[in-house]
Write a structure and sequence with these properties.
Layout (H helix, E strand, L loop, with lengths): L2 E5 L2 E4 L4 E8 L4 E10 L6 E6 L5 E3 L7 E6 L4 E6 L8 E10 L6 E5 L3 E6 L1
Parallel strand pairs: 2-11
Antiparallel strand pairs: 1-3, 3-8, 4-5, 4-9, 5-6, 7-8, 9-10, 9-11
């Protein structure tokens, strides 16, 4: 069983910073893409940032220049450094990863449980 465990969420004032982390554990042969999604109340889930196995990154326009995604392949961990936080960044943040369980298998998508980020004004 593959599990994604997130940490680092919390309450912060506008302009502050938080760093989220997500560690993948269980039966892992390899990890492909990793990313962060968020969902605000009454809104659809959206991609915040993603990073490929080779280190290429993608960001939503709303967070570009403020957020940084990175990964530590040796630790099976992906991070999201969030700076200059705004109230509109508030939501539940979910970690996602494409995981290959066996060498003969294919990649499947796995999700974390979500962590709450609240930005007050």
């Amino acid at each position: 069983q593959v599990q994604l465990v997130e940490s680092g969420g919390g309450l912060v004032q506008a302009g502050g910073s938080l760093r989220l982390s997500c560690t993948v554990s269980g039966s892992i042969f390899s990890i492909n893409d990793m990313g962060w999604y968020r969902q605000a109340p009454g809104k659809q889930r959206e991609l915040v940032a993603a990073v490929t196995s080779g280190g290429s990154t993608t960001y939503a326009d709303s967070v570009k220049g403020r957020f940084t995604i990175s990964r530590d392949n040796a630790k099976n961990t992906v991070y999201l450094q969030m700076n200059s936080l705004k109230p509109e960044d508030t939501g539940v943040y979910y970690c996602n990863a494409g995981v290959q369980v066996h060498w003969f298998g294919t990649y499947s998508r796995y999700w974390g449980q979500g962590t709450q980020v609240t930005v007050s004004s």
